[in-house]
Amino acid sequence: MPGEDIERGAAANKNRANDNVNNSYAPSSAYLIEDMETQWTSWLVPMFVVANVAVFIVVMFINNCPKHDHPAYEGKCVARFLGRFSFEPLKANPLFGPSSRTLEKLGGLEWTKVVHKHQGWRLITCIWLHAGIIHLLTNMLCLVFIGVRLEQQFGFVRIGIIYLLSGFGGCVLSSLFIQNSISVGASGALFGLLGAMLSELVTNWSLYTNKAAALLTLVVIIAINLAIGILPHVDNFAHIGGFLTGFFLGFVLLPRPRFGWLHGSNLPATAPVKSKYKTYQYVLWVISLVLLTTGITVALVMLFRGENGNDHCHWCHYMSCVPTSRWSCDGNA
Q1: Mind listing the pLDDT tens digit for each residue in 249-282?
Q2: Concatenated DSSP letters for 218-261?
Q3: Above 90 in pLDDT, residue 12?
Q4: Inter-residue long-range contacts of 12-19, CB under 8 Å, 24+ positions, other chains counted
Q5: How many CB atoms lie within 10 A of CB 100?
Q6: For 108, which of 34, 90, 103, 169 could close a Cys bridge (C-beta 3.0–4.6 Å)?
Q7: How many CB atoms lie within 10 A of CB 14?
Q8: How confident is the model at residue 247 (pLDDT cuts 50, 70, 90)?
Q9: Checking phi first, is residue 129 left (phi over 0); if not, alpha (psi -120 to 50) or beta?
Q10: Catalytic residue numbers?
Q11: 87: exposed, middle or buried (Cβ count in 10 Å: 0-12, 13-18, 19+)
């Protein structure tokens, strides 16, 4: 919502949803050679979708637009036939959703409440809230087409950890740099899955048959999504924080064993025993774990000390919004 809610993931732009739906999971399926690992049944990602939809329904029930007065906005609640589930006036929320006040009350990310009122739980609850039905549908479509394939390949434990920690990492970075707006959405977690796809491609490089095409496809998808984040009222810091968290977690959680190690039982007893992973995979594992732990620790210390990230990086606000003659970025920094 302009000036108040920062909608994560550029939900208002349906082109992004189409890009992710059509392309995002291609590198993990079209270019990877068949291996002997068992395919998992995806159930956690569908549960995440159900949980997000259920939370949105509860939020709209609590919002109860017809009982609110809207003197500052022309027009009445949208889709009034839905009763208390009707949406706020479009000038208040163009994404067809609840009011800023309702999102704030139910756990939206707000720097003042996290730092000064010690409500750190908002760093987690905001991941499950969405600014409107457009925001929700876009994020859930992306989650299905990215997350289901990853869960089938790597199982619910690893993908669940990446999703939740990436969402948390995105919230932490967002709180450091955007301190005058309410922020909600699962886009930090979704960007974490994209980041994990990229690091999975790197750490399992030898298993891909068309390496250049897989890398180029994924990099283009990520670049387009991050570029959309420079529009006003989109929390690109949550995108970046989630992406970096997922990228490092991918090196830690998603390395695949050597092809020969998977078939070790078929080798003669005199054959030399190789380690499960390659040397460079172990190196990336250690470096990523150190960087991830250090980064999150430093960010949390800065956050709860009440520091503003823009004071330490005077150009970083351009990473979330680039001002033009058509819009200003006053609500983003």
Answers
A1: 999 999 988 766 655 555 555 555 567 888 999 9
A2: HHHHHHHHHHHTTSTT--HHHHHHHHHHHHHHHHHH-PPPPHHH
A3: no
A4: 12/94, 12/95, 12/134, 12/135, 13/228, 13/231, 14/134, 14/138, 16/138, 16/224, 16/225, 16/228, 17/137, 17/138, 17/141, 17/142, 19/221, 19/224, 19/225
A5: 21
A6: 103
A7: 13
A8: very high
A9: beta
A10: 187, 239
A11: buried
Give residues with Cβ within 8 angstroms of 52, minimum separation 6. Answer: 128, 130, 136, 139, 140, 143, 186
Nearest to 241 by CA among 226, 231, 253: 226
The model's pLDDT over 191-209, given as tens digits with 9 standing for 90+, comes to 999 999 999 999 998 888 8
Query: pTM for the whole thing?
Result: 0.84
Say how far apart CA 152 and CA 40 lie, in whole Å: 4
Q: Which residues contact 198 (CB under 8 A, 6 or more apart)?
A: 218, 219, 222, 247, 250
